């Protein structure tokens, strides 16, 4: 059996949470094994398991087999193993990472990434993959798979963008990436392959 590429699709803004039939979601699905019905697992931790967010995920991808893992279910490794695609939602990155580390989910997720599961992350679900995270005027460590830091929603959130720029000027040893709401990154084996701009 050949080794699968490690793939991340990192979404700054958009995706199923704000769009109907979003291009970037279709792009990610096309990276999965070529079968009509795919198994998708949603991780809504950053939103504090918001019910409406979870329901929107299931509705958007209703043509596939969809599941989600709430905070109390993060130890369900078996479900992750069956996934063709793992979708990590947006929200509070600090809370999400703290929760994952408390439950050991951070290491489980990294193992799924290393096994070649296609992983999509939006906003908090995107920035968490980097070594460094800046949010709400504080910096902290991410999962450390990608070197540097990512600022999503750049320029659309003026206050956060200004704070990020100030932090950037004080941390010149860190690689900084900034994405507007219509920009996304496709990463294969820890290398940025393309920036996808959705008009």
TrEMBL record:
SUPFAM superfamilies: Class I glutamine amidotransferase-like. InterPro entries: Class_I_gatase-like, Peptidase_S51. Keywords: Glutamine amidotransferase, Hydrolase, Protease, Serine protease, Transferase. GO terms for biological process: proteolysis. One of its GO terms (molecular function) is transferase activity. Pfam families: Peptidase_S51 (PF03575). PANTHER family: ALPHA-ASPARTYL DIPEPTIDASE, PROTEASE S51 ALPHA-ASPARTYL DIPEPTIDASE. Belongs to the peptidase S51 family. This is Type 1 glutamine amidotransferase-like domain-containing protein. It comes from Vagococcus hydrophili. The lineage of its organism: Bacteria, Bacillati, Bacillota, Bacilli, Lactobacillales.
